[in-house]
Amino acid sequence: MNGIDLSAIRKRFGETEVVKGLDLTIAEGEFLVILGPSGCGKSTLLRLIAGLEDVTQGRIRIGGRDVTHEEPGRRGCAMVFQNYALYPHMTVAGNMAYGLKVAGVPRRERAERVARIAGMLELGALLDRRPHELSGGQRQRVAMGRAMIRSPRVFLFDEPLSNLDAKLRAQLRLDIKRLHRDLGTTSVFVTHDQLEAMTMADRMVVMNGGRIEQAGTPQEIYRRPATRFVAGFIGAPAMNIFPALIDEAGRAMVSGGWYPCPDAVWALPPGTEVDLGVRPADVLPGAPAPGRPAFTPDVSEDVGTEVHLHARGAGLDLTLSAPAGAALPQNDFSVSFPAAAAHCFAGESGQRAALRPTQKPERTDETWTATSLSFT
Amino acid sequence: MVQTLDATFALPARAPSRRVLWQPWVYLAPTLATLVVWIYWPLIEAAYLSFFQWNMLPTATPRYVGVENYANLLTLPEMGRAVRNTVLYILGLLPLSVVLPTAIAILTQDLSGPFRSLYRSLIFIPMIIAPIVAAVLWRWLLNEDHGLVNAGIEVLGLTPVGFLKDPSIALWTLVWITGWKLIGFATLLLSAANGTIDPGYVEAARMDGASRWQVIRDIRLPLLSPTILLLTMMTILFGAQWSFVYINALTGGGPLQSTTNVFYLMWDYGFQSYSAGWSATAGMLTFAGFGVIAMLCLRLMKRFAVHEG
Ligand SMILES: Nc1ncnc2c1ncn2[C@@H]1O[C@H](COP(=O)(O)OP(=O)(O)OP(=O)(O)O)[C@@H](O)[C@H]1O
Ligand SMILES: [Mg+2]
Fold first, then answer.
1. Which residue among B207, B218, B307 sits closest to A77, beta carbon to beta carbon?
2. Which ligand has the shortest distance to the CA of A20?
3. Do B200 and A103 count as a contact with CB atoms less than 8 A apart?
4. What CATH number corresponds to the domain at position B169?
């Protein structure tokens, strides 16, 4: 019974509306990651759940209880801040025990619980130090300990790893995941790091401009982005997007009469302006052919596990990625991609369009692999 | 100094030039001269004078009396009273220069807009009024027969108070006037320090379930402690001196020497009774006393102040 239920949440700072009518249900024990560009209202949403900001409109329920007007300390949430906000005048033990002290837990029990949590986080040797005598990773763990000690119903994390170096970040990411597995506490984790989001989330929410663009498992969001924004935001390198027009048959035509994905027939009226998207890994290079724009290889980046090739064509940029060691086109090439790899976003809001059920058989994995292999 | 050394090392072949050796001293000279002329020389002079009897007339020669001045002053009841009053001044000032400003700074931190400006002007006006003007204003306000304050007291049906005439009240009146001038400055310092406390600490404490008062007690006050200790130390070391101008202008140490303190006494011996030896002796005793106190204060400050690190 420790889920979170947000309904029609709005938050205004003076004139600017930062959270614009947001509904979200977080199941008990779920690890939810909120991802979005800077300034989209992630931290604000988290602070609304925590009670550090008051909602302008809407209701917040935690564990079925309406906490919209509760004090932060009484909502059963614990928060790990981006800069940790460890009390500089207290020792590590003092920092961890402060919440218990305020709650009137007797000294002996406080010490026991601090020792237990410190054991879990390997902080035992640091209990008498002050925060300024700790490294970034140690501070992060103390902040975790402070959050864990009151056995909260909900953990709130506001970019807790963003001040750490890449290696430590990967390590702590795992630690947090393990802790979540062992404790099973409902967690909301804010980040703008995709990798963090994809790897940690049970479920992920992509926010933009104070609204939820899409909520779902990382796989759903990566494979079937619901909007043009999500498509462009998730995935590195970013998805290729071509502006296109729907023709009489429902196929998407890029200017110049090019059909990059002739197999896909979209359930959209003819003449609709759309954005046709394809992930760099799904692009199939081929020999130059009439009626298809030629792309010229520009820069290639080898990131170790795969190679990214940036190419330019008539008014279009393209990124293509292939496993390390795969052959990449050296000269001008044309591209196509299968219907299964195509994403189509229509209209102002850039909503995802569906494929029209067609007579043509969908491409099977088998044919797809065959085409992929043909160029390697 | 470091640069000088570098210059010499950089040119090992040449002998260090004279210019390089005396150059730093030229830069230091104005400061050193000020220190010597205004602090060390008078100190030595005072120490010397404290062993002599001299009426400050240029024609008279000081007469050496050994430690007689010290023996006399230390046994003089007048001196004892002055020391006691000095302590009372300091104790009376502490609430006005530390406790009240701390409370004001914390209570007004959330004020915004016109209230903020209003409160700021109210609190800072006393600070910018010249001390002697403040003294005159307060003499009028506190006048026994025609003063505004006593008029108010009479309206309430109470008997007028001799704020500057009653020996049991006069000292506290002077403490109030001295403190009234200090509240603004102390509040300014504490507000500034309070404003630099990272709001993240307060938010973390709120998440930990701390009440408003617990946040103040456990987070704000410890983080303000360096400023609080600084103000306490300043009050202890300088509080009695700050009241000098009001003693001089309003009571002249009276009535019945109830408002005198060591600083006023020093001045009184020197420039009222022209006994330079006694004045210098009082000065040396005060110097020694406050020197010891200053050292204790510094040590306490190191021990108790919380630094953010
Ligand atoms: N106290 C405040 N007063 C006014 N505006 C605010 C306040 N807090 C946040 N904002 C505004 O609300 C918007 C969202 O801020 P928020 O901190 O939630 O963004 P974010 O998604 O966490 O960004 P980041 O990834 O950079 O941390 C920003 O445009 C910010 O300027
Ligand atoms: Mg943020």
1. B207
2. 1
3. no
4. 1.10.3720.10
Amino acid B309: pLDDT: 45
Least confident of A94-98, B21-25, B208-212: B21-25
Strand A65-66 to A57-62 pairing: antiparallel
Q: How far apart are CA A190 and CA A157, in angstroms?
A: 6
Domain assignment of residue A310, given as a range: 236-375
d(CA B163, CA B152): 14
Q: Which atom of ligand 1 is the closest one to the Cα of A210?
A: 14
Mean of per-residue pLDDT scores for chain A? 89
Confidence of residue B255 (pLDDT cuts 50, 70, 90): confident
Q: For residue B304, what is the enclosing H or E element?
A: helix B276-304
Same-domain pairing of A206 and A133: yes
Domain boundary among A229, A244, A274: A229
Query: How many structural domains does chain B have?
Result: 1
Q: pLDDT, tens digit, for every residue of B120-165? A: 888 888 888 898 999 999 988 988 888 888 888 888 888 888 888 8
pLDDT of residue B69: 83
CATH of the domain at A324: 2.40.50.140
Residue having the nearest C-alpha atom to atom 26 of ligand 1 = A38
- CB of B209 within 8 Å of a chain A CB? The answer is yes
| Residues A225 and A249 reside in one and the same domain | no
Query: Exposed, middle or buried, A120 (CB in 10 Å: 0-12/13-18/19+)?
Result: middle
Count how many domains chain A has: 2
Confidence (pTM) = 0.81
Contact list, A50 vs chain B (CB under 8 Å): 207
Measured in Å, residue A38 CA sits from the centre of ligand 1 at 8
What is the whole-number distance in angstroms between the Cα of residue A190 and the centre of ligand 2?
Answer: 8
Q: Which of A174, A194, A229 is the last residue of a domain?
A: A229
ipTM: 0.83
Does the beta carbon of B226 lie under 8 angstroms from any beta carbon of chain A? no
CATH code at A146?
3.40.50.300
Interhelix angle for B262-271 vs B77-94, to 10°?
130
Cβ of A146 less than 6 Å from ligand 1: no
A76 and A116 fall within a common domain: yes
